[in-house]
Design goal:
Elements lengths: L18 H14 L8 H5 L5 H12 L10 H14 L3 H6 L6 H17 L9 H11 L6 H10 L1 H15 L26 H12 L3 H25 L1
Helix pairs in contact: 4-9, 7-10, 8-11, 9-11
The protein binds a DNA duplex through α3 and α6.
Amino acid sequence: MVRSPCCDKTKVKKGPWSAQEDALLLNFTATFGNGGNWISLPKKAGLNRCGKSCRLRYLNYLRPDIKHGGFTEEEDYVIYKLFNAIGSRWAIIASNLPGRTDNDVKNYWNTKLKRKISSGEFNIINNPIRNCCKKHNNNSQISNNENITNTIEKDRSYYEIESLNMVESKESTEEIPSYYSENSSSNSTDFNGISGEEDEFWMDLLADSFDSSVVAVASHQLQEKMSEIASLLHDSS
DNA sequence: AAGCCATGCAACCGCGGCATA
DNA sequence: GTATGCCGCGGTTGCATGGCT
């Protein structure tokens, strides 16, 4: 099948966007969204651009929730782990980093993080997200489930990484193991044979930091998150 | 000061998937 | 069942900038 071009490439403007074009696009999207159709948006918005170019400009740069600026070490860790787990599926990786776009993550990986890792500058053992469980352990103010829920939300990315690792290693979303037994307590953990440094981290997080009732909350949230990601991967495969 | 090179990042390109006629 | 159109994604390109010689 021969694909017809989305627009006449010879008649639309290419290259960097001007401030005026940005303003036109922003004004239009603020009022109408993409109008249900990116291809027809340029005409409606008064832009001499390809619809795909408008979509890219908006999603990667103009969208109000975009986070500009350098990546944190926590974000490095998430990217590193997800890349190892699922490869260059930038959209999924970016979805774990609020405010980051797939393009951003891809550029960051290709230009900086890859080099940072190979040079040894990026140290997974000393990464702050890994050490956060120790922080929790020393924080006596964390004393109720609400606080723990907030803490867990902050560590959401880690849970998702673990889920993705499991999906990858089992090669089937239907074979995701029950990573943490529903009846487990801090010293009767059932890890279904999964081992390794990252699992030690998970054990630290659950067993060292919290009492058993809190662990139950974490376990439940993890199960939910795993199901969510499993279905996401299932849908995308 | 000028030229060269490396780096970072915005933008483009083409393909696959999906919805719909 | 097939053709068509749109969206989203990943790979790649090209330009701007800064550092080095």
